[in-house]
Write a structure and sequence with these properties.
The chain has a domain of 242 residues: Transmembrane di-heme cytochromes, Chain C (Fumarate Reductase Cytochrome B subunit, Up-down Bundle), CATH 1.20.950. The longest helix has 36 residues. Helix 9 runs antiparallel to helix 10. Helix content is 67%, strand content 2%. The protein has a two-stranded antiparallel sheet. The protein is elongated and about 85 Å long. The protein has 13 helices and 2 strands; from the N terminus they run ααααβαααααααβαα. It is an all-alpha fold. The C terminus is likely disordered.
């Protein structure tokens, strides 16, 4: 009897231990999964989601339609990152900028550049090269010294690179890319962009030096009116209206370079350092102005290059070695020759000043 009671007590004890172990096993399993198991991470995530406050999906007091209408208009929301401009999801002005850039700007720019090229070719076919009318003397006169020529070529050389790389940005995707393929075009555009950014400062320096050197020689005078009335002798053989060191046509080129160069420099600096001095909307406006002014300046400089090279005999020497034929100077800059040499020149049909 006593042995029977002992066996019953041992059985009850074992049953209790088994029930306690069974109750503790799920808790132990749950504790082991929390160490890093994916099942428990999902459980923790659900727990955090239940405890975290709900994330607002719209602005309080506004309907969903009103909220998206504001976003479409470019309203700025709140962001936690340093770049607060990221709060603008849709920048509507960007669509207007793209439409103008890819539409009227590109189209009218094409007309301007194609038009000036066509006019120069037509002028050359009709007028031919403007020759020195009088008999050459074999003597020369210094027109520009080495420093002046260096400033000219600094400005001219940087402008050529800027013009080519800039036109590539505007038109290269549609003209150059199909010709040379993606990889060469990508390399050309990349290095062109680098050259554009750095040589822009060389161009700004050149324009500033040009202004300092020649501004006093480019003040308009009454002789410029005579020059324009006779079209500078460009269309009439033997007609040479008097002019000082720079004639009316050259003064237009000078002030176009100075004013246009200053505008290009200002807008260019804004674009090289975005958001440092201007907002996004202002940068878009500066980019359009930069491109439009550049196209106009390219057209003007093309005419200048033509007259200063193949268009007029003896003109390139002025910026070549700086020495020009005396007879050329008498015909195209008679008043300047009088100032430099002291000789008196009869201002008739055999002296004058077509633009270089």
């Amino acid at each position: 009897m006593e042995g029977h009671r002992m066996k019953a007590a041992i059985a009850a004890l074992l049953l209790g231990i088994g029930l306690a172990a069974g109750a503790a096993l799920p808790a132990a399993a749950q504790s082991s999964v929390r160490v890093g198991g994916p099942v428990d991470q999902q459980a923790d995530t659900r727990q955090i989601d239940r405890e975290a406050p709900p994330v607002p999906t719209q602005v309080p007091g506004k309907s969903v339609a009103e909220g998206w209408h504001g976003i479409r208009l470019g309203e700025q929301g709140t962001v936690s990152i340093p770049n607060k401009q990221a709060g603008v999801l849709i920048q509507s002005e960007g669509e207007a900028w793209r439409a103008v850039r890819n539409g009227p700007l590109s189209q009218y720019g094409t007309w301007v550049l194609a038009g000036i090229m066509a006019l120069l070719v037509l002028f050359f076919l009709v007028r031919g090269r403007i020759r020195i009318d009088g008999e050459k003397t074999g003597r020369t006169i210094q027109r520009f010294n080495a420093f002046e020529r260096g400033v000219h070529w600094l400005t001219a050389g940087s402008f050529v690179v800027l013009a080519i790389s800039g036109l590539n940005v505007l038109y290269g995707r549609y003209t150059l890319l199909p010709l040379i393929g993606p990889e060469p075009f990508a390399a050309f555009t990349h290095y062109g962009k680098l050259a554009h950014n750095f040589l822009g400062f060389a161009f700004i320096l050149g324009v500033a030096l040009i202004f300092v050197l020649w501004a006093r020689h480019n003040i308009p005078s009454r002789h410029d009116l005579t020059w324009f009335l006779k079209a500078g002798g460009l269309f009439s053989k033997g007609v040479h209206p008097p002019a000082h060191k720079f004639n009316g046509g050259q003064k237009i080129i000078f002030w176009s370079t100075v004013v246009g160069g200053a505008a290009l420099g200002f807008t260019g600096v804004q674009l090289i350092f975005p958001f440092s001095f201007a907002t996004l909307e202002e940068l878009q406006l500066y980019q359009l102005l930069h491109a439009a002014i550049a196209i106009i300046m390219i057209a003007i400089i093309l005419a200048h290059i033509y007259i200063g090279s193949v268009g007029m005999e003896g003109a390139f020497d002025a910026m070549g070695d700086g020495q020009v034929e005396l007879q050329w100077a008498r015909e195209h800059h008679s008043l300047w020759v009088e100032e430099v040499t002291g000789e008196k020149i009869s201002h008739g049909h055999h002296h004058g000043t077509p633009a270089e």
